[in-house]
Amino acid sequence: MASSASSPVRLLYDVRVRAVLYQVVAVALVVGVGLYLFGNVSRKLAEQNIATGFAYLSRPAGFVISQSFISYDSGDTYARALLVGIFNTIWVSIFAVTLSTLIGLVVGIARLSRNPLLSFLALIYVEALRNVPLLLYLFLWYALIVAVFPPVREAWQPLPEVFLSNGGLIVPSLRWSSAHTGVLAAVILGIALAFVVASRLRNRRVASGQNQTGWPLILAALLGPPLLAILLLQPDFVINWPEKGRFRITGGVQVTPEFTALLVGLGLSASAGIAEIVRAGILSVGRGQWEAARAVGLHDRQTMRLVVLPQALRVIVPPLTSSYLSTFKNSSLAIAIGYPDLVMVSNTTMNQTGQAIEGIAIFMLVYLSMSITISLFMNWYNARVALVER
Amino acid sequence: MVSATEMETLNLVRADLPPPRGREWTARLKPFLGTPINAVITLACLWLIYRLVTGAWGWLVTRAVLEGGPQACKVGAGACWPFLAAKLRFMIFGFYPYDEHWRPAFAVVLFLGAMIVSMIPRFWSRRLLWLWLAVPVICGVLMYGGVFGLPVVSTTNWGGLPLSFMLSSVGLAFGFPLGVVLALARSSKLPAIQVIAIIFIEVVRGVPLVSILFMASVMLPLFMPDGLTVDKLLRAQVAIIIFAGAYIAETVRGGLQAVSKGQHEAAAALGLGYWLSMRKIILPQALKIVIPPLVNIFIGFFQDTTLVTIIGLLDFLDTVRASLRDPNWQGIAVIEGYVFAALVYALFSYGMGSYSRFLERRLKTDHDRSPAH
């Protein structure tokens, strides 16, 4: 044994030696190709006199961004501009995911309706959205918005001080201050507190078997922090009224047609996928579960909430995660209709500075880290709803 | 009191007895008008369907502009058919020389023919592999020319539907082997190889396709050695292959996991090594499972090829948009153009989707014949 293992040819046939050999070759290949490409890049960059590094981030950007959720003007730095882009991406994704989940839930349940007309209409909805590229829909919605609504000079006023035109929807807004941010934080805190209190009460009810009236406590938890914040911070309520000038409308808050088209396009296209996910989830719960729930005396809504939905969620959550992730990634199509998301701001930055590698590296890193965050969160949620095997 | 529907759900009504005579038509109407809410839903659906059908009919036929030029369409309220007639060939073939249009047309017919042949289970055999080696080469030679007296048409003039078909099918053809290798690497027991595969797959799947296309169009030229320039179309194609590979890898990995452990053990017991057991035992079973999801992935790629417009390639969606921007027709037939493009994409996607469902049913019945059930 010992003598044969020492022979170099026999050594090659040893599975463990081969395993090490394969891995060394693979790593050497990857590192070699990487070094070769890196060498090419650095030589070309030096030849073409392109600057490298991230120093440009602190220089003024000098371009205007049509919509931003944080304060920005063209004198701000490139870093600030990219931050605006990131926020724009996140905002439109959050709205689109919410919209698609709501519509998808309704359509998915409609697909299972016993009324053949309703389920047929739901089927048409799903097929029409699934079989046509998202980008085409984005162009179509954008074209429709521009075609249907009047130009800014003849803006409709469905309500006083609300302007609707192909330049977007403009509504009066609150002049925002840090006090308002504080109140908003308090509202979120209140909602979180109410959830905690509600789950505590439920656990106590399950443990003791006694039904106590808990809603005053929950209401106090919900409203307490915001009221306290209003009393302490004293935010002033100054309304920023939109004003119609000759060519454009100033003041107020504006929802641009680009944002609307992107939101509608992303939301509707994803809703078709979610409808199918919801349908498959509910179908996965066997008939026996419905019948057993009826047999123990639960009515339809209780059956849905306590028996069917918890089991359906196990099937629904994993594909729902990938649907949310792809909505988030698809928001990068914004560049095609001119909504200033991360990719579009990066593209402008790259065109101005010529530093393509840094620009692409930044937005890929941002997307990657956010994708990982979303999937970690959804995995945590999935672990909560997943079947606990005993 | 127990209502009739509750009696039925509680199984108080004997379902095994035939329904009372003369009540068939009421039974048939029941799903539509069973309860008051259901009746309201039925009426609402009927109204919606009526509005959709009459609206579409009015726009497409009764109010449509059937002949004339841009001026007639500007005045008319319905669909503009002359626009389609005037722009159809440009939308399909892009800037490919007008007199040579028969070449991409023939290539598309050849490609679709090969696809239909390989979709029919009766023709499934090893010979299909040769067909798929030959067809892309023939299509490529037809499109590019330079032999048999065909004038050369550079790839910058390729566009329209042939380009969309090419990007998605070549993407799948090269992405598939890449995906299988990546899937094997990811489920390998060798840590270094596994890590390389995981990083590649997760990075590609974690970023949008747009960013990979950007990388291919902007960064790839910097990575190439001096003097080597890569065609723009080829760069986009490489991006799509990489993207396809990562997604196919995850699908194939699902198939690999679905093959039971006993198969691995049986192969090892027969004395088969890794490569032989993969080739002869595991992969054939795993790949069979993943055929339907692969068809769905292909539909996705066909739709995703539209993104190449963002880096300035003239795919079908972009030739349609270019027609809309034609000075003669600008702003006149926008909706018509998009609806036409949507119908073309929908027709293809729906056809492939139906095929995927057919495959799923067929493969499922094969499975259910196992003696265990």
Summarize the SSE layout with pairings.
The complex is a heterodimer of chains A (390) and B (373).
Chain A: H1 2-6, H2 8-12, H3 15-47, H4 78-111, H5 116-130, H6 134-148, E1 163-165, E2 168-171, E3 173-174, H7 178-208, H8 215-233, E4 239-240, E5 243-244, E6 249-250, E7 253-255, H9 257-283, H10 287-295, H11 300-330, H12 334-337, H13 342-353, H14 356-385
Antiparallel strand pairs in A: 1-2, 2-7, 3-4, 5-6
Chain B: H1 4-9, H2 24-33, H3 36-62, H4 70-75, H5 81-93, H6 102-119, H7 127-144, H8 161-186, H9 191-206, H10 209-223, H11 232-258, H12 261-269, H13 274-304, H14 316-324, H15 334-368
Helix pairs in contact in B: 5-14, 6-7, 8-9, 8-11, 8-13, 9-11, 10-11, 11-13, 12-13, 13-15, 14-15
SS content category of chain A: mainly alpha
What fold name stands as the CATH topology of the largest domain in chain A? MetI-like fold
Tally of alpha and pi helices of chain B? 15
Instruction: Report the CATH architecture of the largest domain in chain A.
Output: Orthogonal Bundle
Give the C-level CATH assignment of chain B: Mainly Alpha
Please name the two chains that share the biggest interface, counting residues whose Cβ lies under 8 Å from a Cβ on the partner chain: A-B, 55 and 55 residues
Percentage beta strand of chain A? under 5%
Please count the beta strands of chain B (DSSP E, at least 2 residues each).
0
Total domains of chain A, how many?
Answer: 2
The portion of residues forming beta strands of chain B comes to: under 5%
- CATH fold naming of chain B: MetI-like fold
CATH C-level of the largest domain in chain A? Mainly Alpha
From the spread of the alpha carbons, the general shape of chain B counts as globular
Low-confidence segments of chain A, given as residue ranges, are: 1-5
Would you identify the CATH H-level superfamily of chain B?
A: MetI-like
Whole-number count of domains of chain B: 1
Mean of the pLDDT scores of chain B?
Answer: 80
- Please give the largest β-sheet of chain A: 3 strands, antiparallel
Order of helices and strands of chain B: HHHHHHHHHHHHHHH
How far apart lie the N and C ends of chain A? 47 Å
